[in-house]
Amino acid sequence: MLKEIESQLNSFKKINKNRGRLLISCLDQPGIISKISKFLFSHGANIIESNQYSINPHGGDFFIRIDFEAPDLIDKKETLMEDFQPIAETFSMTWELHLVSELKRMAIFASKDLNCLRELLWQWQNGDLMAEIPLVVSNHETARPLVEQLGIPFYYLPASKENRTEVEKKQLQLMSEYDIDVIVLARYMQILTPHFVASHPMKIINIHHSFLPAFVGARPYERAYQRGVKLIGATSHYVTNDLDEGPIIEQDTVRVDHRFDVDELKKMGGNIERNVLARAVKWHLQDRIIVHGNKTIVF
Amino acid sequence: MLKEIESQLNSFKKINKNRGRLLISCLDQPGIISKISKFLFSHGANIIESNQYSINPHGGDFFIRIDFEAPDLIDKKETLMEDFQPIAETFSMTWELHLVSELKRMAIFASKDLNCLRELLWQWQNGDLMAEIPLVVSNHETARPLVEQLGIPFYYLPASKENRTEVEKKQLQLMSEYDIDVIVLARYMQILTPHFVASHPMKIINIHHSFLPAFVGARPYERAYQRGVKLIGATSHYVTNDLDEGPIIEQDTVRVDHRFDVDELKKMGGNIERNVLARAVKWHLQDRIIVHGNKTIVF
Amino acid sequence: MLKEIESQLNSFKKINKNRGRLLISCLDQPGIISKISKFLFSHGANIIESNQYSINPHGGDFFIRIDFEAPDLIDKKETLMEDFQPIAETFSMTWELHLVSELKRMAIFASKDLNCLRELLWQWQNGDLMAEIPLVVSNHETARPLVEQLGIPFYYLPASKENRTEVEKKQLQLMSEYDIDVIVLARYMQILTPHFVASHPMKIINIHHSFLPAFVGARPYERAYQRGVKLIGATSHYVTNDLDEGPIIEQDTVRVDHRFDVDELKKMGGNIERNVLARAVKWHLQDRIIVHGNKTIVF
Amino acid sequence: MLKEIESQLNSFKKINKNRGRLLISCLDQPGIISKISKFLFSHGANIIESNQYSINPHGGDFFIRIDFEAPDLIDKKETLMEDFQPIAETFSMTWELHLVSELKRMAIFASKDLNCLRELLWQWQNGDLMAEIPLVVSNHETARPLVEQLGIPFYYLPASKENRTEVEKKQLQLMSEYDIDVIVLARYMQILTPHFVASHPMKIINIHHSFLPAFVGARPYERAYQRGVKLIGATSHYVTNDLDEGPIIEQDTVRVDHRFDVDELKKMGGNIERNVLARAVKWHLQDRIIVHGNKTIVF
């Protein structure tokens, strides 16, 4: 990694050494917030921002994200988690505690179209995406100079339908070796097997180049052109085993008109794709997303 | 019709008595624009705004819309059309000449949800949609007071799958009796038969409550909710025999989030629906739309 | 009021009879949320949605909005308020408790341009704005039929620079007589005196027909046309004694181009105005807004 | 310049060797379009896209942009210009003929904030901005690696209020030496003297980091934060001697809320800035813009 990026990340970790985030979902019951906030208070934590939402207050689903500060958080983390366990059990919570200073380790998978990869690397370099990027994997050599000039290891693993299993094995080894938390498919264009998906559930973020569920599958711009739509869009979602059917994180659209041919739709769409993907990744890195069934709550 | 609306329309017709619009499509060939503009000049017409577009200049499709003024246009119309005929034949043109002062006669078909009907009537009353509205047809009584207070005849024709043929017969009689140019389905919620559609080709404008081609067919908001989309939309299109597959005129989307239930999606979407439909109707009334295959050119 | 609207409001009040909202702002200190949530829990309240935000966790400002349900809330209100008082004092809170079933009483001030008034009345009729509307005041007769057909008393009070004091006296009498909670200036076009403004601090909502702070003051569309802007906008804000300088609640813009003359800018802008104002009013009615200095927090 | 970019530009020039654009403005008079189209036809030109607009058809201003193809255009250019001269004189036209294959020579002026510069270089590399970029000038060394890795000469000319005249002299020398057609100020942050501006009238494109005319001048984000706006924007305009008052080419806005501090407004705004500037530059390079008084017509 380039020195200047490294020092930027280090300074971010230092500033945020006492900052944590608690993400909880469970069935709604009286007294949950009271219990959580008492717990945080008793451990010296001060809540900075909290957002809570219940689908149905009478026994429906309850979701909360709490952004807090607590002195000596890094040392205290284990204690906090142990002490919270009984509360979590009482309410049968699904929960996560994240320290902002423990940057997520993000792998990016790319292909020949560098549009999305470039945006991610740029925003990262610019201090907008706070993560470690230990490696970029691609089935083409195209991205190598862009990646290596930032000091990021680049792995060229030519992938196709034929060698999928073998390639995925190597990829999973790399993910494990580099201790990866989140995988971003920046127009990777290869379908992942259920085995790969199962290894990182709700940790693989994809960008699809259409406003889903319109134009699921291949060649969405060509089909958008044929249909004569007046807006084109992009959708970022977590990858599941159903193609383009995973929980949607973010979407956006942009106006086009009859003068746009397929190539111009692609150029226009590329701009939406990179922005939508970057927002989705940012929200994931900031622990803003709770997956609920096949939907996301983005706080 | 209310006196104040009538006098508003009359004043518009007077102001625009010399204003016309020429819409042409044909195969592209050298010299078309030269011929057309020479023709207009020789008839004393001054071009106010013109927009031309060719899909492929080497023998592809050519489209033009010309907005012009010519003295004594109303008297001259027949001559203009006769004189233009030979040019049209030379280039095998599909063409229309519209006089702005000859207001289109627009029928609105509504049902119980008055959202879109209200917007159209309001914009009409406000001078934003320049048309005659000789009647509103509905399969419910709900809209009667709203319609009749503007002095517009209201026809209650309860329609269902069972009596479709019979009802359409009456509707077509009304369309003919009132000499209707364009039919707007303002959330009419009934499927039209091919017979009805064929009677007004590319003159029936529908609003579909989703961003097509996502959620074709029934209950789009329910399905949008299930899918967890982050934007909802609406699409206005000309009606063809393929449900929700006609040429798209206009679309728009609006941001929603996890807090929206189906009812709130509907309320949010209703706002988009009425604006999208009103824009599509306005463009049709202003002769801005050329249909080309299953697409529209909107100048 | 029309029977159907009345019954719609009554049904809303019934459904929401146990629903309340707590809005709090104070200096940030440890333990606030813990105290509030314990208080609500001990009074049998279940939190449905809560949003909290601190400008600076180290002694900065703290804001929270809690949407909750509690059995027998209407009977319990007084007790709740008394019991909360000591907590409020401990933390020097500014706070409000609202019962959703206690609909706000909203007066609308209009003039000749009915665009915004119509949108408000329509959304109200449609069940999107939950409030009583005991009266509409106008300095022109134009709106009378529109208002009276909904069964709302209409007061024609011709206002001008000359008789401002006298007219405002009558208006204040009406506000007091009808026990008004919030006043919406739906393109009222008259400047209010400091005396009037002081009588309803942060309870008067205005719509300004530009994207503030661009084009403060008179004739914004004319000035937008002169400047050749590519977007026009509208701003809804609370009224203070500084013209167009009060806390902004909501803003939006829409694209225009060189073909728009001043009248068309006005038509285009009118659509933005009414939507921006309706959103601002809705958020106010839903107790989503906390005013902080000259800004708003909109939860 | 990198070989791959060079070959991309060369291939673009080859494909478009017969493509030209005619931009005309004059007082509206009958027969203009007829004359122009006859002229083009008689020189073998086929019109691909044409857009015409008159502010007022009765002697107001007339503007047209014609995109055409003509065989052997490069060889024919001189003849075309000579032959068009008499027509131009008859109607007192201001006019320009551009060959798409004669790429404009664009200089970029940057400073420390590389956001806009990066977007321009990226879109250029990606084939979205068709121009030669013979040099980048900056008053800081920050951009050097980014610029030089694309094979573009980088000139470091530290500029300040004190040495403005001297620095501008060098800059003008460079502009002349490199035969520059258009100068883009990509957050250059230095005020240009009237002498410099006069040397390239309506050929210097600036990006201002606010929605003009809101927040003219310095520190717009700080002032937007103070004012509590709900949208922030950016404006691209031609530079004149009145600071931030030149003809606006493009503007856009994006939604923000109370949680954004000044730094986050800047990050959010940066994304709008770079997109707005890139669109404005693209339209300039495509000869889509006619300046009329202090406004632009963008076809």
Automatic annotation (TrEMBL), chains A, B, C, D:
GO molecular function terms listed in the Swiss-Prot or TrEMBL record: formyltetrahydrofolate deformylase activity
Keywords for this protein: Hydrolase, One-carbon metabolism, Purine biosynthesis
Database matches in InterPro entries: ACT-like_dom_sf (IPR045865), ACT_dom (IPR002912), Formyl-FH4-Hydrolase_C (IPR041729), Formyl_transf_N (IPR002376), Formyl_transf_N_sf (IPR036477), PurU (IPR004810), PurU_ACT (IPR044074)
Domain ACT: 21-102
Catalytic activity: (6R)-10-formyltetrahydrofolate + H2O = (6S)-5,6,7,8-tetrahydrofolate + formate + H(+)
One Pfam family from the record: ACT
Enzyme class label: hydrolase
Pathway in which the depicted protein is active: Purine metabolism; IMP biosynthesis via de novo pathway; formate from 10-formyl-5,6,7,8-tetrahydrofolate: step 1/1
EC id: 3.5.1.10
Catalytic residues of the enzyme: 244
Coiled coil: none
Function summary: Catalyzes the hydrolysis of 10-formyltetrahydrofolate (formyl-FH4) to formate and tetrahydrofolate (FH4).
PANTHER family membership: FORMYLTETRAHYDROFOLATE DEFORMYLASE (PTHR42706), FORMYLTETRAHYDROFOLATE DEFORMYLASE 2, MITOCHONDRIAL (PTHR42706:SF1)
Family: Belongs to the PurU family.
Name of the protein in its database record: Formyltetrahydrofolate deformylase
Species this chain originates from: Terrilactibacillus laevilacticus
